[in-house]
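Sample A.
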Amino acid sequence: MQLQLKPEFEEILEPLGENAAVFFLAAGLYFAHKVSFAAAAALADLSFNEFLCRLREHFGVGFQVLDDSVLEDLQTVAGQRVADDLGKTLHDRATRGLPLSDEERAQLQRWYDEQDAEEAAMLGQRVGDLIQKLKNTSLSSEEQMELDYCMKLEHQMRLFKAHAQQLKSIFDDCPIKG
C-alpha cells in the first residue's frame, strides 16, 4: 500500500525530520494498541531508546500502561477462576505431553490467563508509579533501568503471547490429537 500525504501534512511534518510521517504513523498504531512498543519502534526504524525519546518529545509520555484493561481481564476471569492446585496439575500434565480433554485445556488456558493478568497488574502498578515519578521529577539511574527493563519485558510478553496463539491455532487445526 502506497501512502500519499496531502500537501498540508507535508508542510507540518517537514520541520520534524525526514521520517516524521513514519514515526507518527507507528506512534499512532502503538497508542491505538494495534502494535507493541517494540513493534512500533521497528516500524519507525528506530531503536528502542530512540523511539522512546521521540514519543516523550512529541507526546510527553514514552509508553502507556492501561490499568483498566488489566482490571477488565481480571474481572472477566474472576467468576471462572481455576484453583491454583488444579492449574498447576494441568500445566504439569500438559508439559509432560499427557493428553488433556477439551474442558481441561480450557481450564488450563483460563489458569494461564489468570496468571498473566495478575502479573500484568503487579507490573503495571510499578510501571505506573515510575511513569508518574518521571512526569513529576526524574528517575534515578536504577529506576530508569527498571523502567526500561519493564518496557522490554512487556514487548517480550507480547511476542510470547503471539507465539503461543500461533502454536494453539496449529494444535487446534491438527487432525491428530492425543
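Sample B.
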Amino acid sequence: MIQYLPPAAQRVRLTIRNWNPRYVFADQRAVALIEVKIGRHTGDGRGTGWVELPAGATAYDSGWTDVPASFRGAEIVLQYRWEGRDVVRCLGTGWTDGVRDPFPPLFSWFEVEVPTSTPVVAVFGSSTAAGVGAERPLIDSWFGLWAREHGVVPMFVAHSGDKALAWSSVSNRKWSLYGDEAVPVDAVLYAMGSNDWAERVSLAVLQHRVETTIGGIRVRTDAPIFGTTITPRRKRPPNEQTRIAYNEWLQESGLFAGVIDLAAAVSLPDGTLDPAVDHDGTHVNPRGHARLAAAVPPSVMHAVASRRCRQGRRRLCPHPR
C-alpha cells in the first residue's frame, strides 16, 4: 500500500485490521503480521530507506514512529507479510506478491502527526471520494489530488459502496471505526449520497439521510462543511430528476458553508456524463478525478484559513486588505 506524507509530517502510526468498514464492525479471524515496514516509494510497490515496525497481529497498532526526513513530502510504501485465513480485502493501491492489486489484503491506515500549523480536511463520501476510477485509488482520488496541491493533510472517511443510510444508526458504530477521537479537522467535504440516490429513493428520503448524517458530523466538529453535487451516470436512471433536484436543494438547504459543483465538472452541457471522463458508467477516470479536484473552489481554503486564524494558528491567515 502507498500513501503520500505531507512535508510537515513528524510521526506516523499504522493500524491494520481484518475488516471491511462498509460491512462489519469487528475483525474477522486474527491475522499474524510477520514483517511490517515502511519506506520511501520508488515505484510499483518497491521502496528504499526502510523503517522496520514491530511484528504483531490484527488488530495491529504500530505505535508512533518518527518519520525520516527523506519520507516527508513524498510517497511512502507499506509492506507486510501475513499468515491467516478469512482475510478481508479492501480498496487501495497495493501489490500482492509483486502484482498490482486494487483490493489488497487487510484494511490499513496511517495517522500522521503534524504541527498545529498544518491544515487538515476530511472527506465524507463513498467510491468516487475514495478514488475508484483513479490511476491509483485514494492517493490519486480527486480529494487526494486537491489535498496535495494545497498542502492539506487528507482524512478519508470514505469507502466504496457506502451510503448516508449506513451512517444514520444511533449506535454510531461506523464512526467508531474511523476514530471518534480523531484530531479536529479544519473543514469537511460532504461527498455522500450517490449510492442512496441509486437506490431510487425519493428526494425527501435522500434529503433526510443527508440531514441525519450532517447531524452526526456536527456532533464531532464545528468545522465548516461543504456539500458536493452528485455526479451523473452514463445511463440515466428513472429518478434522474431526483439527482437534479437534490443538487439544487443543496444550495438552499442551509446545511453547508458552500456547495462544490462536482457534477458540472464532469458533465456535458445537457447534464449527461462526459464520455471523456467516463470510467465505467458510474465512476470517472483519472481525467475526471483531475477535473473534480480543479472544481474545488478557493472558498474552501479561505474558510480553512479563517477558522485557523480565529483559533490563533496563523500560518494560513488571510493577508489584511
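B remarks: The chain has a mean pLDDT of 90. Residues 203-220 form the longest helix (18 residues).
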